[in-house]
Amino acid sequence: TIFYQPDAFVGYPHVQGLYPLMYEDNRNKYIYSFFVSAFRGAAIAKGFDYGNKFRRDIAIELMIKLPATSDGQPDWAYMESYMKQIMEESEKSLENLKKADNTKHLIDISMWKEFKMSDIGFKNYHGIRQKQIDRTEGSTPLLTAGKENQGLAAYIGNPASTYIDSITVDMFGNSFFHKGPYAGDDNIYFFINDKISEDVKIFVASIINADNTRKYPFKDQFRQSQADALSIYLPATPDGQPDWQYMEDYMKAIMDKSEQIISDLQIGA
Predict the structure, then answer these.
(1) Cα–Cα distance between 111 and 265 in angstroms, integer?
(2) FRET partner for 265 with CA separation of 20 to 30 A, picked from 156, 188, 198, 258?
(3) Residue 107 has what pLDDT?
(4) 29-48: per-residue pLDDT in tens?
């Protein structure tokens, strides 16, 4: 993960700071933001993960693509102009989102109940370690631990195993729904239930993510024992079963509202 930091900071030993030795006159938040995006894209394409870390010596040698002038130099003016436009559009989008709904809505959870994942139809599977040196290029997404790009590390052609339409939980408790087929490194756990819809799985993944990311910091990670015992609170029917219909209806309403907001932003509403 790569970010631009405008202010002075203190970092842990595994946080590296990179500073320009050339083009020092071309340093502002717009150019840095553009450069960081290109830098991050080049790094992600290399497939770094928990076992194959992005070190300083690699960062210094990493080749990235930037806009260039006719004489072959980085086109700093273009980068600055482009990022100013992007940031202005983003600020307008945020204002539109605030106008769309400026209030927070509480969800009534008085009828929710705690369920163990294995008791409500979920089976969990552990990803398999695939070192970068052993991978071949291909089209199957490989997941590893982290929020960046929902854990997508690389596309490989020799997955040890794949899972379709699954909820994933990584070693830090981050949870996402992946339509699949996806492969996972050994820090990923796949939860499969073929009897519920995609919308419901998104709902469940959101609940797991909101609850688990507070429990599993770097030193206390989500492991197989936690996967086997995982339980979460979900809406329940009067007879004490998960209210799958409520979850599906709720997610459909959220999706419809999101699509409307996106449509409004696209037409400049």
Answers:
(1) 36
(2) 198
(3) 67
(4) 899 989 998 998 888 878 77
So what's the pLDDT on residue 269? Answer: 46
Is 1:148 a contact under the CB 8 Å cutoff?
Answer: yes
Tokens of 156: 């490989």
pLDDT in tens, 49-106: 777 788 888 888 889 999 999 999 999 999 999 988 888 877 776 665 565 555 555 6
Question: Residue 207 has what pLDDT?
Answer: 92
What SS3 state is found at 197? coil
Q: What is the rounded CA–CA span in Å between residue 135 and residue 152? A: 14
CB 209 within 8 A of CB 151: no
Residue written as tokens 């490194």?
A: 185
Please give the Cα distance from 192 to 118 (Å, whole number): 10
* DSSP code string of 243-260: -HHHHHHHHHHHHHHHHH
Tens of pLDDT, residues 194-213: 999 999 999 999 999 887 65
Q: Starting from the edge strand earliest in sequence, which strands make up the sheet with 137-143, in order?
A: 152-156, 137-143, 183-184
31 burial type by CB count under 10 A (0-12 exposed, 13-18 middle, 19+ buried): buried
Give the largest CA-CA distance in the chain: 73
What CA–CA distance (Å, rounded) separates 120 from 129? 28
Stretch (H or E) spanning 167: strand 166-170
pTM of the model: 0.61
